Automatic annotation (TrEMBL):
UniProt KW Oxidoreductase keyword: yes
Transmembrane stretches, start-end: none
The protein, known as: Short-chain dehydrogenase/reductase
Coiled coil region boundaries: none
Gene3D superfamilies xref list: NAD(P)-binding Rossmann-like Domain
Stored Pfam families: adh_short
Keywords: Oxidoreductase
Family that this chain belongs to: Belongs to the short-chain dehydrogenases/reductases (SDR) family.
Keyword Ribosomal protein assigned: no
Species of provenance: Streptomyces hygroscopicus
Superkingdom of the organism of origin: Bacteria
Amino acid sequence: MTTARHWFITGASRGLGRAFTEAALAAGDRVVAAARDVGPLTGPAEEHPDALLRLPLDVSDRDAVFAAVERAVEAVGHLDIVVNNAGGLLYGMVEEATERQVRDHFDVNFFGALWVTQAVIPHLRARRSGRVLQVTTMGTGGGMASVGYYGAGKAALDCVSEALAMEVEQFGIKVTVLQMGGYATELFTTGTTATAPDPAYQSLRARLAEMWGEDAGPDPATAAPLVMKLVDLPDPPRRLIVGSRSFDLVQEMHRARLEQYRAWEDLSRTAPG
């Protein structure tokens, strides 16, 4: 008989977090589902009364995060898999964003994941096991107009997570950065904070809208089987692109960037460093 694993998932009430929560429950695991609004999880909670603990949480509040993790451990005994999924989108040009918008964005997308990570590592280290999955984006390899702040926060999480992976591997903890492709979550609707548009960028906005089109991407549930396979791997990757189309796009971005580096190689080599 397989022993149920214990998950701690942030942003669990919608989108990818909801999909991962439902997949874990379907596998017979127990889930502590954290979100600012846990109301949308009423159905799963009624279906899995002994396996799902809903936990209201604002991940930008460090003290609340540490208290929530302690409550989770007390309730389920220990944690096996932690998924930092909570996040939002700050949509707008770099010039347009207010200080408050930028700070609020990073408080959730970067610092929120950092606080959860800091809170859970001592528990995983004590057991000398555990998985930490950091949900970022396929776009962290470079900035894109109008979503630069989103990419910046996720890129920062990428770097911290790779450092973390090196630090905690000695304790039997495995860290994987999930570089997500585009899925039909509510990131671009209820999950978006928009800047006040400056008319100077109107033509660029129009070009971006035409380039992106209206395809919202596949259902988040289609990413869940990959995550379930990932957590079963004894030696998982530190970075994983999630999505076939996204894999191709990332390869193309890296190819273009390498060509740019090579085009300016002579200038680069004029410095000795």
